[in-house]
Write a structure and sequence with these properties.
- The protein is an alpha+beta fold.
- The protein is built from 14 helices and 18 strands.
- The strands form four sheets. It has a seven-stranded mixed β-sheet, covered by helices on one side. Strands 7, 8, 9, 10, 11, 12 and 13 form a seven-stranded mixed β-sheet that branches. Strands 1-18 form a two-stranded antiparallel ribbon.
- The radius of gyration is 23 Å and the shape is globular.
- The relative contact order is 0.14.
- Bound molecules: 2-acetamido-2-deoxy-beta-D-glucopyranose (3 copies).
- The site of one 2-acetamido-2-deoxy-beta-D-glucopyranose has 3 residues, from helix 3.
- Pfam families: CN_hydrolase (PF00795).
- Keywords: Signal.
- This is Nitrilase/nitrile hydratase.
């Protein structure tokens, strides 16, 4: 059945339904709506402990990535976090090479795509059960971004998905990215109208997610606002000042918390190695895109010459350039890649590729903005160029309101056993539902600021499938077998 109705009209007709899995309950995406007026003043002001994880998955190795995920869950549980969020495609890896590799080396694509799909995660699988167990043991609610293997049709498609898993380990909602950006569409299939999901999470409130640039879709944001979302989780791969201003803007626009995680990709780490391995299987002699790309990145990031810091000033300049302007950065890094490809006579041997450059290829940049658009957690970058990133990044938690006014600290670092605290960690910040409520006094798109008499938003929430059976057969038989 195809349902087209205004979101506002629909909302008043649904009944409460929590604690079921997403596929059993077609009204799941509305479960967040019901209990706002049942929240006691105590519950409203109690701190919601939000943990934001900055870490690199073990790219294209699902087992190892789940191991790592579980290690982080142990620390999150020990620190009594209520809601934990991770970066886009955490299980098991964002295809960081997609802007370059999709069209650059067609011969390698299918092999890499195979690796990508094989290490994606399917709801209902044994691997998924392990993830749910770790979450239940830790007792924290999680927004978990995964590469989700399709559970229908050929089961070859992969979605860019955020799963909402509550602290008992139950999957209470699923959001599939409705619009992967640009070359991302090469790797991920897009979700449908059922994917605008708001869930109630115990001890937290109403949680929703949009993945990366999907949060630029104003009507997707609006639909989630109309469902009363209070905590918008935005895992991404974007980085830099333009992205940061967006995080702050949509926080103020939605009057909700915006919790954003970025990618961590070490320049010569697992991610590049594994992609290279996939590529070299494609044709006799192996594909060359990875070593050449690597050399391109070394140039783009100013680590030419010595594999370590060739010239720190130059490195920092280029880093700032890349962070400062996406357009310029893209142009600059593209230029270097292209230049490199045209003049490098021999690819860099893989054993040289493990040497570290002065900076990460992607260094996180997580942030959390409050419902007024102020950064509760200033953007934080992982970087072993600093002697002690945690201390350097503590400024991410410190807020200065002006000369003479004591600084306030709004978040804290939680280290994870077995990981380098300067590079991978969890940041804990306290939020509250009361803060969301209070900020809506000033401006509320789906309340005192709404003008539904002028503008009306329609949302088609019909589930899509690859085949729709109809009862058109004269026998009333729905299976088309003529019996
Ligand atoms: C994936 O990780 C597991 C666990 O760390 C390891 O045993 C396995 O060899 C890895 N697989 C590949 C293909 O590297
Ligand atoms: C390092 O790079 C900067 C900026 O390009 C340049 O001005 C400086 O001369 C370089 N220093 C050395 C020692 O090469
Ligand atoms: C968060 O709240 C807890 C109390 O629930 C408190 O102990 C902790 O210091 C707070 N942390 C921050 C960073 O405000």
């Amino acid at each position: 059945m195809k349902i087209i109705a205004s979101a506002v009209a629909l909302l008043s007709t649904v009944s409460a339904a929590t604690g079921t899995t997403y596929h059993e309950d077609p009204t799941m995406h509305l479960t967040g709506w019901h209990n706002r007026n049942q929240v006691s003043p105590e519950e409203d002001t109690k701190p919601v402990h939000i943990g934001s994880i900055q870490a690199e998955p073990v790219h294209w190795n699902l087992t190892a990535s789940i191991d790592k995920f579980c290690d982080f869950m142990v620390s999150a549980g020990a620190a009594n976090m209520d809601l934990v969020a991770l970066s886009e495609g955490f299980l098991s890896g964002y295809p960081w090479f997609n802007f370059f590799a999709s069209t650059y080396d067609m011969a390698s694509n299918s092999k890499i795509s195979q690796l990508f799909a094989e290490n994606s995660l399917q709801v209902g699988s044994a691997e998924m059960a392990r993830v749910q167990e770790c979450i239940a043991e830790a007792g924290v609610n999680v927004v978990l971004p995964i590469n989700e293997r399709d559970d229908k049709g050929s089961q070859a498609a992969v979605f860019n998905t955020a799963l909402f898993i509550d602290k008992s380990g139950e999957i209470i909602g699923r959001h599939r990215k409705t619009l992967p950006s640009f070359t991302e569409r090469f790797w991920w299939t897009q979700g449908d109208g059922t994917d605008l999901v708001v869930v109630d999470m115990p001890d937290v409130g109403r949680v929703c997610s949009l993945l990366c640039w999907e949060s630029y879709l104003v009507l997707a944001c609006y639909t989630l606002m109309a469902h009363g979302c209070e905590f918008l989780v935005v895992p991404t791969q974007d980085i830099g000042s333009i992205w940061e201003s967006h995080v702050s803007d949509i926080a103020r626009e939605g009057r909700w918390y915006v919790i954003a995680q970025g990618q961590v990709v070490a320049p010569y780490g697992e991610a590049m190695q594994r992609s290279a391995i996939a590529g070299t299987h494609t044709q006799p002699g192996g594909s060359q895109w990875y070593p050449r790309l690597l050399e391109g990145f070394k140039n783009a990031y100013g680590c030419t010459g010595s594999p370590l810091i060739a010239n720190a000033t130059e490195t920092v300049n280029r880093q700032n350039l890349l962070r400062g302007s996406s357009a310029t950065a893209a142009k600059e890094s593209q230029k270097n890649v292209v230049d490199t490809v045209s003049w490098i006579p021999e690819p860099v041997p893989l054993d040289q590729a493990v040497e570290k450059c002065a900076t990460y290829f992607m260094d996180g940049g997580m942030s959390i903005a409050d419902p007024n658009g102020r950064f509760l957690v200033n953007p934080i970058h992982s970087n072993y160029m600093y002697a002690d990133t945690v201390n350097a990044a503590r400024s991410g938690c410190v807020h200065s309101l002006g000369p003479g006014i004591p600084e306030e600290s709004h978040c804290e670092f939680v280290e994870v056993d077995g990981y380098n605290r300067d590079e991978e960690f969890i940041v804990l910040a306290n939020a509250s539902r009361g803060e969301v409520l209070a900020s809506k006094l000033y401006q509320d798109n789906v309340g005192n600021y709404a003008r539904t008499d002028i503008w009306k938003v329609e949302w088609d929430n019909a589930p899509q499938d690859y085949i729709f059976e109809t009862a058109g057969n004269s026998n009333g038989n729905q299976h088309g077998n003529g019996l």
